[in-house]
Amino acid sequence: MAQLIVAAMFASIVGILVIAFLGVALARTGKKVTARTTLLAGVLTALLIFMTLAIVNSYTIVQAGSVAVVKRFGEVVAVFEPGLSWKAPFIDQTVVYRTQEIVYETSDNPDASKADYTDYQVDTATSDGQQITARYTVRFRIKPQEATNIVNNLGTEQDVVEKLVKQDSRVWVRTLLRNYSASQLYSGDIREAQEAIATQLSNDFEKEGVELAFFGLRQIGFTDDYKQAVENKQIEAENVTTRKHQAEQAKYEKQRAITQAEAEAEKQRLERIGIAQGEAESIKLKAQADAEATLLKAKAQAQANELLAQSLTPALINWQAVLQWSGQYPTVYTPNGGQQMILPGDLFSAPAPTPAP
């Protein structure tokens, strides 16, 4: 309605200006002109301008990823999908909502953020009283089928962010982080807290026709004093761990030395056993070889003796005795102290034949 009044006033002003301009211009030229003529020209000009504005205001183009809610005298009469749509000029008003994901983000420097809507980080405290700051991101989208309820209950997209996304997210972040200790949040294990906040926001958004696409705690900030205390504690813990590792290393080195010494002793024992076994085996083999050699030698001597015995005859024996005689007669002592020579005939005579049994 306001647009209709503005358009009518603008057209009327332009028409009046046209009437005045024509009257002055014609008066300077000396031409006679009637008031009816100038008035008609002004009215036609005003009507032309008003009609032009009406035509321009009779359609709207809804971009992809958006919907437009049409209100007439404050009442929702239609919802336009993306594309070209016609509406009553000056009477119908449209409220455009993006149905794509919209990003709301908190940080310590909102001006540097590229999110759709930015805000400052949230201050709160942990369950053990440590002061912290929370930086988080909310991604959400407006459901097209809920656009009518949203325009009636919340307002524009800016109102949705301000009344719902901003208010609820800051409240739940500030409240639910108080359920966790500083050590839990400092260690980076914030998934449980993040899921708890996301659950609450999802329920709140669903009631208003908004869908939560993502909630994430990007960073939890701690005071410098707490960071220093944690660092000192971590250093002490690392020192304890280092000393423990050193003790375990010393224990390992000791055990390794004992094991090495036992292995060396076992090696020497096995070597001694091996040497002794080798020497025993060598002695055994040598004894066996000597015995076999002696046996072979004895067998050879026996065979030689047998062959020699077979070859000896009384004549050969006498002949060998003659060859070995030095020319001296052997003598023997008699019981009377005298001597008696043994004549060669006694030595070289053939032995008496052995009587037959």
How is this structure best described in words?
The chain contains nine helices and twelve strands. The chain has 357 residues and is of the alpha+beta class. Among the domains are: 1-57; 59-98, no CATH class; 100-222, Tetrahydropterin Synthase, Chain A, CATH 3.30.479.30. Strands 6, 7, 8, 9 and 10 form a five-stranded mixed β-sheet that branches. Helix 1 (2-29) runs antiparallel to helix 2 and helix 4 runs antiparallel to helix 6 (191-207). The model has no long low-confidence stretch (mean pLDDT 80).
Q: Would you summarize the structure shown here?
A:
The chain has 357 residues and is of the alpha+beta class. 57% of the residues lie in helices and 20% in strands. Among the domains are: 1-57; 59-98, no CATH class; 100-222, 2-Layer Sandwich (Tetrahydropterin Synthase, Chain A), CATH 3.30.479.30.
